[in-house]
Design goal:
The chain is 38% helix and 23% strand. By secondary structure, the protein is of the alpha/beta class. Helix 3 packs across helix 5 (119-138) and helix 3 (95-102) runs parallel beside helix 6 (154-166).
Length: 258
């Protein structure tokens, strides 16, 4: 039994099939890549796994438990998280507040305690603040804790989105184009961060990325989608040499440029 598995996943929009019979398995603690040309169905697959779009068929399992029928907040509580192509943050909130929202599922007070303002609420607030500050410190953002998100540079926003996802303690984290819009220095820093996440926090990563140099260097296993179907699985070297992958990206027999 696989740790995290997608079986025969199908997603349709009207009469258009965005994801067609895709199956893949993730190995615990490893970094996996999900690539494909524009419109291949990569983001649709992530959205379907997170319960943000309905499935036309298939299963999503974590440690053998089916989660595809759960609402998004319950899927997140099972240990599956994601980031977005464009950081979906609360622009008028501080960096610290944004991170704290990601840890809400692990808050140590209940609704009644929060409404009544009991000592349990105060203790939970202190713990949540401490956890968020520790995570910001780990990723070099502690000095920005009181800055408002809308005032931050794009690369910093992407990192903040990642930190907010990690505070939820996911076991599987899907990153949707984590280096898009970054310069080379920022992108290489993001690569180092992803490696550190997998190793130190024991998080299994599935990374959607258009930057071929980055994904070929970062991922240990790569899945390739084209027109909603999985056309290849393998190591970076195997995927680069696969004729179907070459055809999907370039339309002729030139190796995919890594």
């Amino acid at each position: 039994m696989s740790f995290f598995e997608i079986r025969n996943l199908n997603v349709t929009f009207g009469g258009l099939r965005a994801v067609s019979g895709v199956s893949l398995s993730l190995i615990p603690g490893r970094i996996h890549g999900l690539i494909g040309p524009n419109g291949a169905g990569k983001t649709s697959l992530i959205n379907a796994v997170m319960g943000l779009v309905p499935l036309a068929g298939g299963q999503v399992l974590i440690e053998g438990r089916e989660i595809q029928q759960l609402p998004p907040h319950r899927i997140a509580a099972c240990g599956v998280g994601r980031t977005f192509q464009h950081a979906e943050l609360f622009a008028d909130q501080t960096v610290l507040d944004n991170v704290m929202t990601g840890g809400y599922a692990h808050r140590r007070s209940n609704l009644l305690q929060d409404l009544l303002g009991t000592p349990g609420k105060a203790a939970a607030e202190r713990q949540a603040t401490h956890d968020a500050e520790q995570m910001l410190q780990r990723f070099g953002l502690a000095h920005l804790r009181d800055r408002v998100a809308k005032d931050l540079a794009f690369g910093t926003l992407k990192k903040l989105d990642l930190v907010r996802a990690l505070i939820a303690r996911p076991r599987v984290l899907m990153l949707d184009e984590p280096v898009s819009g970054m310069n080379q220095t920022e992108a290489m820093e993001a690569v180092a961060v992803c490696r550190r996440i997998a190793k130190e926090l024991d998080v299994t990563l599935l990374i959607v990325e258009h930057n071929m140099q980055i994904i070929m260097e970062l991922a240990e296993t790569i899945f390739v989608l084209d027109h909603g179907e999985k056309i290849a699985t393998g190591t970076p070297a195997e995927v680069q040499a696969d004729p179907l992958v070459i055809e999907a990206y370039l339309g002729h027999g030139t190796p995919v440029d890594a």
